[in-house]
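Researcher: Please translate sequence to structure tokens.
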Amino acid sequence: MLLAHLARPLALAAVIAAVLAPATGHAEHRGHARHVVLISVDGLHQRDLEWFVATHPGSTLAELIGQGASYSNARTPFPSDSFPGLVAQVTGGNPRTAGVYYDDSWNRDLLAPGTTNCATATPGTEVTYFEILDLNPLAIDAGFGVGAIDSAAHIRANIYKLPTQARELIDPSMLPVDPKTCLGVYPHAYLKVNTVFEVAKAHGLHTAWSDKHAAYDLVNGPSGAGVDDLFVPEVNSDVPADLGPAGADFTADNLNTQFYDSLKVGAVLNWAAGRNHDGTANAAGAPAIYGMNFQTVSTAQKLNVSHFPSDQGVKGLGGYSAPGAIPGPVLAGALEFVDASLKQIKSAIDPKDTVLIVSAKHGQSPLSRAALTLIDDGEVTGALNAAWAKTHANAQLVAFSINDDGMLMWLSDRSNGATRFAKNFLWNYQVLRASGSDANGNLIDKTASTLHSGLRRIYAGDEASDFIGVSTRDERAPDIIGIASVGTVYSNPAKLKKIAEHGGDAIEDRHVPIVVWGAGIERTSSDERVETTQIAPTILEALGLRPLELEAVEREGTRSLPDLR
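Model: Translation complete:
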């Protein structure tokens, strides 16, 4: 069933610290690098990296740490989700500044997709910046039409025909609508601050990136033109028949996720060689900033069972093995795949002029199967709405919620009374059904042990705004923030579809590695507390550009990573 597949800047008018003017040629490189390659291994924990290096001392990851700078006490922003996680790395800002809380969220000022009479429409809509935005979410080419994609061979032959701009893969009818213009809001326009790609472009530099959905048009930044070559095959699309059963997507089996990630590795190798993502000639040469995300580790952490690399092609347990949260066979195989891919990338770049940065958009929780508690978030929000409706006729309190291993709610009534009601209800609610996993991957009942809707702390109204550092009038911020008990995953308790998730505030969600290797980087190891937002100014410093050209860096005072020599 499965295949074995694994410009120089313009002269300044005065000698002052001012934003550099756009240039028509290449920027003058006053830093130690001409290129920075950014790699996000989604889901990768610091402890995963430590385990892998200890058990694979001859690995590429071990070489990167042994020869470069490593930061063992790094944290992602909250919520620790893919969108805010990547935004942190490329803007230097947290959600409060960037305005991006999740890839699926609510905005009180925008109008529903498809709205045409914007003068009379009621504001408030879900903002769906994930695969549903594609022309065809079920196709790996997002419905663009690159040619045959009905087999692994055809995908490899045709997927690189995808355009260089992700917006060409987006269905405009699915975009939220700006009431001022009555036009759809593309992801890049939703971002409130600029990106490292835009700063590079302002200095005449070439840029590229690869990610998992067309919605990663986001990284273009507000200008919409930050990334010259944005390669975004759809990860949640259906696999062809020779890779798996009908209806399965590339995240349903880890070998298929590895196949998918290998396509993006191909694009990165083409960029490193100074070509476009499709391998065609590019006069600009290798991009100044480029890179990709890996999905493989995240999938391996989530799946209950999956095929993994072996001579027999057998299935094994995903996640971690007890004791000590040691990666099981699927996750170990995923880490080996990522390391082999990094070896290809490292071999393709020149360490005399290129800096390689490896980190993660997010971690994942829980690491222990024994801690896993699956709860139906629909049950919880439905019960809350029903309780509210008893005294508020025809009223639905929860306008929208997104719950993975945390709880974010946007309420239709933002009054103190309503937010207190929601907080008290959630804290006192006992779920009707919860489940977990035994050590062998079998479903077990855990209802009796579940309290407080699966949460350990709840912030409501002003508390929620203070927690994330925004005004209570913020049109994007949630009204309720539920910090989940470690192990809570909001998913169907009737089956073990996933045994881990991200988006929450658990240490497993946020404690990720940062490794910097290459041009001008001396060996150092730091346990100083750092944030993944510090990657963005570090990228610009490496290229000899000013970090303060990033709006989020200026507003938040984000510093570059320390002790880089």
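Researcher: Any highlights?
Model: DSSP finds 16 helices and 25 strands in the chain.
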